Amino acid sequence: MTGTIVNVVAIIIGSLIGLALKRGIPQNINKAIIKIQGVAILIIALNGVLTAMLVVGTDGRLLSDGALLLLISLVIGCFIGEIIKIEDRLNNFSDLMERKLKADNLSKGFIPATLVFVIGAMSIVGALNDGLTGDSTILFTKSVLDFITAIILTASLGIGVMFSAIPVFLYQGGIAMLARVIAPYLSDEPIRLLSMVGYALVMILGFNFLADTKIRVANLLPALVFPIAYYYIFIHTGIV
């Protein structure tokens, strides 16, 4: 779990630096930075979605694959998430932590940062390599990226970003510890489908930053389960 521990430490240190910078940023500049973050997140997420969706056909041409699966995953995920009220539960948890720690607007940074740091193939593949072979190279690279991201996010969204280190530790650490059990089930194809849906959620997060929309991204988290289920029920079994 060396890579995960380094990743968590990088997020915490980056958040502390971001908190120090936040004190000197005027409110109007802070709002402008949030908008620019939205643009950057949109571009990064769009790149992730396209990388997952575009495949090279037998004739050498680029083909789009997975659009219908993406749509169905988001619709089903939204339906389930709204019923069980995931975002409300996360906000209640954040409110509880705010009262105990006397930290304002903790949820403002916690949920977006968790999505940014957790979603993506680097988290899964890096944690698998860390657990199977002890090779932390991918997670070390991710740590550098997350360190920079944590500084920027914390400077505009506050201390909640630091607490995203907890789900990162649980998620990546859990994958690393169970790597030998789950590795046979996480081949390139299910990871590709999972990343496609995951980066779509990050895109929605970018829209929230950019346009001040209030799409409840956390309620879409069940969408991440559907592509894996689809793969093993339909593709892996040869039905489609």
Structure summarized in a few sentences:
The protein is mostly helical and about 240 residues long. It has helices spanning about 1-20, 25-55, 65-85, 85-100, 105-120, 120-135, 135-155, 160-165, 165-175, 180, 190-210, 225-235; strands at about 55, 60-65. The chain has a two-stranded antiparallel sheet with strand order 1-2.
Kindly name the structural category.
mainly alpha
Count of individual domains: 1
Low-pLDDT residue spans: none
**What percent of the residues sit in helical stretches (DSSP H or I)?**
over 70%
Strand order of the largest sheet: 1-2
Rounded radius of gyration (Å): 18 Å
What is the terminal separation in angstroms? 37 Å
Return the string of H and E elements. Answer: HHEEHHHHHHHHHH
Overall pLDDT: 88
**Percent of residues in β-strands:** under 5%
Q: Give a count of the beta strands, DSSP E runs of length 2 or more.
A: 2
* Discrete helix count: 12
User: Rough shape?
Assistant: globular
Which sheet architecture does the biggest sheet show? 2 strands, antiparallel
